[in-house]
Amino acid sequence: MIEIRNVSKTYANGTKGLNHINLTIGQGEFVAIVGLSGAGKSTLLRSMNRLHDITEGEIIIGGKSITAAKGRNLRMIRRDIGMIFQSFNLVKRTSVLRNVLAGRVGYHSTLRTVVGRFPKQDVELAFQALDRVNIAEKAYSRADELSGGQQQRVAIARVLAQEAKIILADEPVASLDPLTTKQVMDDLKRINLESGITTIVNLHFIDLARQYATRIIGLRAGEVVFDGPVSEATDEK
Ligand code: ADP
Ligand code: ADP
């Protein structure tokens, strides 16, 4: 599903974010990427969706090179990748429903769908997505009226409405309390098991990784220092 071949990323100021990374991630895996702050977790995730360009190497998503893709081809590859961020990245002053419908934008070419009415089947999909994270009753609330955990579930619903095949979650629970953390991680895990959606989650704490992931990748200073099943991940970091 995802192949990362000899990938390095050096930032404009000379900082090395990633140093010759090689990884293959199969469909349906639930992978946790762990490491201390500055290890390169976020750089790796952002590289996969090409939120920034890499300096060296190539990344293949579903058999297609996202590194080489341009224009429409790049958009098509990105359609399969749903992003979840620490800070939720919802449109604050807009309804929950409309935020989830934003996952459908790109399936229609017109701007109308951003500001105007969506096709009925998209609205149905959005409600189904909200149901799957148990938050459909908030559909008409403003996104910024929700708690952090609820907002993160809306972000998950947006990815579901997008019908993404891959979820990239960059420290999705870093700003949540323990109870809410459990709810959000439970949702991600359940969706992974139900839909076989490939899930890659950056986590600061290895305990959470052990609890939810089937494979742990440890990064340090932009390099892979551990890659294996949870049972073999001891005190790596
Ligand atoms: P993590 O997500 O594990 O905390 P990052 O991927 O954010 O790590 O950072 C990896 C390295 O790249 C760090 O040394 C960080 O300071 C550096 N870095 C991240 N983003 C930038 C940037 N935009 N410009 C320069 N250096 C950056
Ligand atoms: P707005 O008030 O900006 O229209 P809403 O969150 O109420 O935002 O709805 C977003 C869009 O979803 C609507 O413009 C419409 O296209 C669609 N929509 C909302 N509710 C329904 C519904 N019950 N049936 C069909 N479409 C709906």
UniProtKB/TrEMBL annotation:
InterPro entries hit by this protein: AAA+_ATPase, ABC_transporter-like_ATP-bd, ABC_transporter-like_CS, ABC_transpr_PhnC, MetN_ABC_transporter-like, P-loop_NTPase
Keywords: ATP-binding, Cell membrane, Membrane, Nucleotide-binding, Phosphonate transport, Translocase, Transport
PROSITE patterns: ABC_TRANSPORTER_1 (PS00211), ABC_TRANSPORTER_2 (PS50893)
Molecular-function GO term, any one: ATP hydrolysis activity
Record flagged with keyword Cytoplasm: no
CDD domains: ABC_PhnC_transporter
Superkingdom of origin: Bacteria
All residue ranges annotated as the ABC transporter domain in the record: 2-237
Keyword Translocase: yes
Any one annotated GO CC term: membrane
SMART domains, sorted: AAA
Protein name stated in the entry: Phosphonate transport system ATP-binding protein
Species this chain originates from: Fontibacillus phaseoli
